[in-house]
Design brief:
Chain lengths: ~280, ~280
């Protein structure tokens, strides 16, 4: 009896999740281009720098802490100061990826045992993928007819998956799921990795940069929050051009007017290399 | 270029293999091309000779130091030259601290063998007094960044460091060796330029100068050290096997590649006394 209830609950939760994914119609995450944001000042701050003493109007946000008395907001990172509503954030110039609930990540299976898979997601700690989060849902199962025959997906060490973080806190290793739209095993293509804080730059404001890259190089691109980018094109020449363009974006992430410059560069390079 | 972890993902393996089948490399080279060498000599003032060499992303710092010691009994009138290598943990997540592991010993030994068995270091000229005092030359390689094919990089770098070396000339007196005020360098230390040429093998596909991703995917590699007209050493590592025809083909390729490298790099420009000659 208890099991049935559990299952029902689980299904409800998962259906909620499914709806969430369906809203996400584009391949890439909808992240604002933080570097290009108008509220982001060009001011570079260092760890320990006092950002504000006006405690009535501002609240410490990401990358900041309060001093002991609670009278000053202090930066803990090297980065750009950003004021959003009444939050003061610091956008790091580079750094590690920290898993957050709801992020899509590309991971590599590094270990497996009957209870769970261990997944390298480019973060400080390995993520965990439990078999129950790999269940492929079919209509048969939803009606409860074949509930004993769980249709879980199997992975081997070295497989590449796109997954969603379902829980992440400071105490436990992040947990992943591959149930949902666009999630699951990746076949073919190539993965490159960039500095995670520069991911918004590769996507651009409202996806402008990534749309430009896609249209100019005819490659499929999938960018995830942990700084890994999956690329698949029909010709290695185009893939190489795209990879070089992405590294160029990473190098020049802190500059203005990047999309136009990269577009010009890509068109020049295409002519030079004779790519149609 | 790619994520370097102990576990290389399956799609990366597939990508490298599929492109190699079409005779294409992941970094856009041809099958028999080297990445770009960059050589800077004279970077360490405390050393007699030094070199900072990079081959693509691989970067090694090499220093040459000397000592005066007694010769080995079987070669009483010959100096000694030894090579040591250290893989710093800074270079790659694959390296750990601690005593030298297989890879660092292999790097040192293969570079050493290439130099030792060629007419490279002029050991007879490094003798101060027979049975009493000879020069002992130490070549120390420190890998700063690992991006594949450390052996070729180290071999070229060692030669550049030796060429740039300036060793105080000693003469024998009753109280032991004394400095004459002159230096020995260039042609007095080195005659021939042996180069190590490394080939990787994935399935049946052979290629020159494997980068790190290819090295991790490959079944093994073979290093052929060549002078202008002879092979001085061959080292095979990994689980792969080579047929005799393959070895013959690779030897020819090694001579071609070495000739091209000698021409491109023009190593003699780094010699200390080149202007005087």
């Amino acid at each position: 009896m208890e099991e049935e209830i559990d299952e029902e609950l689980e299904e409800e939760i998962d259906e909620d999740l499914d709806e969430d994914f369906e809203e996400d119609t584009d391949d890439e995450e909808d992240t604002d281009d933080e570097f290009e944001d108008e509220e982001t000042s060009r001011e570079i701050v260092a760890p320990g720098e006092v950002l504000s003493e006006d405690m009535e109007n501002f609240i410490p946000g990401r990358g900041t802490i309060l001093n002991k008395k609670g009278t000053k907001i202090i930066s803990v990172l090297v980065g750009l100061k950003q004021i959003k509503k009444n939050y003061i954030n610091v956008i790091p110039l580079n750094g590690f990826y920290t898993a957050r609930t709801g992020d899509k990540v590309i991971g590599i299976i590094t270990d497996k045992n009957p209870v769970k898979y261990r997944v390298d997601i480019n973060a400080k700690y390995n993520a965990i993928l439990k078999p129950r989060n790999t269940v492929k849902r079919s209509k048969m199962r939803r009606r409860g007819k074949s509930s004993h025959n769980l249709n879980t997906e199997r992975f081997d060490i070295g497989d590449v998956i796109v997954a969603k973080v379902i829980s992440a806190d400071r105490l436990n290793n992040p947990e992943l799921t591959i149930v949902g739209k666009y999630l699951g095993k990746k076949m073919g293509g190539i993965i490159i990795s960039i500095d995670p804080p520069k991911v918004p730059r590769v996507i651009g404001r409202n996806g402008s940069m990534i749309k430009m890259l896609k249209s100019l190089t005819d490659c499929n691109i999938f960018v995830t929050q942990n700084g890994r980018i999956w690329i698949k094109g029909d010709k290695i020449k185009k893939e190489r051009l795209l990879i070089e363009a992405i590294y160029k974006i990473e190098r020049e992430a802190h500059t203005r007017g990047l999309t136009d410059r990269v577009e010009e560069w890509l068109q020049n390079e295409k002519e030079k290399r004779g790519i149609k | 270029m790619m994520d370097v972890k102990r576990i290389i993902s399956k799609i990366e393996k597939g990508y490298i293999k599929n492109n190699l089948k079409k005779e294409q490399r992941v970094d856009g080279r041809g099958l028999w091309d080297y990445r770009d060498f960059e050589i800077k000599t004279g970077i360490i003032t405390a050393a007699e000779g030094s070199c900072d060499i990079s081959l693509g992303g691989t970067r090694i710092m090499i220093g040459v130091k000397y000592d005066v010691g007694t010769p080995f009994p079987d070669t009483p009138d010959e100096g000694v030259c030894t090579v040591m290598a250290e893989l710093l943990p800074l270079a790659s997540p694959l390296f750990e601290r601690g005593p030298p592991d297989e890879e660092s010993i292999e790097l040192a030994r293969v570079v050493d063998r290439g130099i030792r068995h060629a007419d490279c270091v002029q050991t007879k000229k490094l003798c101060i007094q027979k049975d009493e005092a000879v020069y002992i030359i130490f070549i120390d390689m420190y890998v700063i960044n690992h991006s594949g094919n450390m052996i070729d990089c180290g071999a070229v770098g060692s030669l550049a460091a030796l060429l740039s070396a300036k060793i105080p000339q000693g003469k024998w007196t009753e109280n032991g060796p004394e400095w004459t005020g002159e230096y020995i360098s260039g042609k007095d230390i080195i005659n021939e330029l042996p180069l190590a040429i490394t080939f990787g093998k994935i399935d049946d596909m052979l290629f020159l100068d494997p980068n790190l991703a290819e090295e991790l995917v490959s079944d093994g590699r073979i290093t052929i050290s060549v002078t202008k007209d002879q092979i001085t050493s061959i080292q095979k590592s990994g689980s792969t096997t080579f047929e005799i025809d393959e070895i013959k083909m690779l030897s020819k390729k090694a001579f071609e590649a070495a000739d091209k490298l000698r021409e491109d790099l023009n190593l003699w420009q780094y010699a200390e006394n080149i202007e005087e000659e």
